[in-house]
Amino acid sequence: MVRMGILSFAHMHAAGYAACIGELPGIELAGVADEDDVRGREMAGRFSTKYFESFESLCDGSVDAVIIASDNKSHLPLTLLAAARGKHILCEKPLARTMDEAREMICAADAAGVILATAFPCRHIPAMQRIKQMLTSGRMRKVLAIRGTNRGVMPGGWFIDRERSGGGAVIDHTVHVADLMRWFLECEAAEVYAEIDTRFHNIGIDDTGVLSIQFEDGVIATLDTSWSRPSRSFPTWGDVTVKLILENGTVEVDSFRQKVDFYSEEAHKCQYVYWGDNMDAGLVANFAAAVEGRESVSATGRDGLKALEIALAAYRSSRECRPVALGLDSTQQVH
Fold first, then answer.
1. With a threshold of 0.90, does the pTM exceed it?
2. What is the pLDDT of residues 152-183, one digit of tens each?
3. Listed residue (135, 74, 136) closest to 105, CA to CA
4. Confidence band of 274 (pLDDT split at 50, 70, 90)
C-alpha cells in the first residue's frame, strides 16, 4: 500500500488526483494540507481523509509520497520540504518558474534519493501511447513535422499573478504538448521562435502564443498555446491535439473527443460530457508503481525541466523578436 499526501489544492488538477487515489487499488490518500485552511478542510472531508494544518506536519507523517498541486511559486519550497523528509514527489506542471528553480528541485530530490516526477498526464492518454508504440516499432516511419494545440479557458486566480505563476498561457499550456513532442521524437528542441501577446482578456499577462520549434533531428513543429476559449459559451475547458506528418502518412489525435454532446436549456449552451479514458488515473498509478519500485516514472523532473526550457525560450523569442537557441542561461525568467 502506497500512502500518498497532497500538498495544496491551489491547482484545479488536485481534486482529480485525489479522486484517482480513492479509486485505484493499492493507494491510500493518507492526508492533505493546504495554505487555505477552509479549502483544505473541505477537501479532506470530500475525500474522506485527514487534514494536516501545515505542510510540515503532513511531510513529517507516515506518507510515502506527496503530490504537489500548489501555485508554481511554491513548487520549489514544497519539493525541498518533501525531499528533506524522504518523500517521493509528483509535482504539477510546469515544474517551476525558472530553470534555476527546476534544477534546484532536481538536485534536492537526487541528493535525498527520492523520485521527482513531473505531472504530464497526456503521456497516459491511450491514443498518445499508441502513437509512441508505433513510432518505436517502426510502423510509423520518420516524423517530418508536428502540429500541436493546447487551447483552453482562462483560469484566473493565481494563474494570472506573474509572481506566483511565472507567466501566463504560454508557460501554462506549452509544456504539455512540448513534452509529447520530445517524447515522440526522443530528441531535444534546438531553436524556438514565438509570437506572444494578450488578445482575449483584459489581464496583465499573456493569454496567447504561437510557437515554431525546430528539433535537433530537423523536425519542425508548431504549437498554438492559449487561453482563447470563452468561459461562458465554450462547451468544455479546452483541447489537446497533435498531428504528425510522417514519411508514410499522417496521424492526428484529438485527445478529449471521447464525449457526449449535451444540450441544456438551463445552461443555455452545448456542453461536452466526457466519458473516456482517465489520463490522471494513469499518471497516479504510474507514480505509485514507481514508488514501489515496479516501474519507472513516465516523466521525470528532467522532462519537466526540458519542457519548461521550451516555454521560457518562447518568451525570450517574443521579447527579442528573433529565434532563440536552446541552452538558456540558468537565471532566465519570464518578464
1. yes
2. 999 999 999 999 999 999 999 999 999 999 99
3. 74
4. confident
| Structural contact between residues 195 and 210, judged by C-beta atoms closer than 8 angstroms | yes
Whole-number pLDDT of residue 330: 43
Same domain, 61 and 140: no
Q: Are 61 and 5 in contact (CB under 8 A)?
A: yes
Per-residue 3-state assignment (H helix, E strand, C coil) for the chain: CEEEEEECCCCCHHHHHHHHHHHCCCEEEEEEECCCHHHHHHHHHHCCCCEECCHHHHHCCCCCEEEECCCHHHHHHHHHHHHHCCCEEEECCCCCCCHHHHHHHHHHHHHHCCCEEECCHHHHCHHHHHHHHHHHHCCCCCEEEEEEEEEEECCCHHHHCHHHHCCCHHHHHHHHHHHHHHHHHCCCEEEEEEEEECCCCCCCCCCEEEEEEEECCCCEEEEEEEEEECCCCCCCCECCEEEEEECCEEEEEECCCCEEEEEECCCCEEEEEECCCCHHHHHHHHHHHHHCCCCCCCCEHHHHHHHHHHHHHHHHHHHHCCCEECCCCCCCCCC
Strands 208-215 and 220-229: antiparallel
Q: Into how many domains does the chain fold?
A: 2
Q: What integer is the mean pLDDT of 292-317?
A: 98
Chain position carrying cell 488538477: 13
Q: Are residues 238 and 160 in the same domain?
A: yes
In a domain, residue 333? The reply is no
- For residue 86, count other CB atoms closer than 10 A to its CB: 11
Residue-number span of the structural domain to which 164 is assigned: 123-277+306-325
How far apart, in whole angstroms, are the C-alpha atoms of residue 224 and residue 228? 10
d(CA 99, CA 242): 26
Strand partners, 148: 223, 242
Are 88 and 176 within one domain?
A: no
User: How do residues 94-129 score in pLDDT, each as one tens digit?
Assistant: 999 999 999 999 999 999 999 999 999 999 999 999
Domain of 267: which CATH number?
3.30.360.10
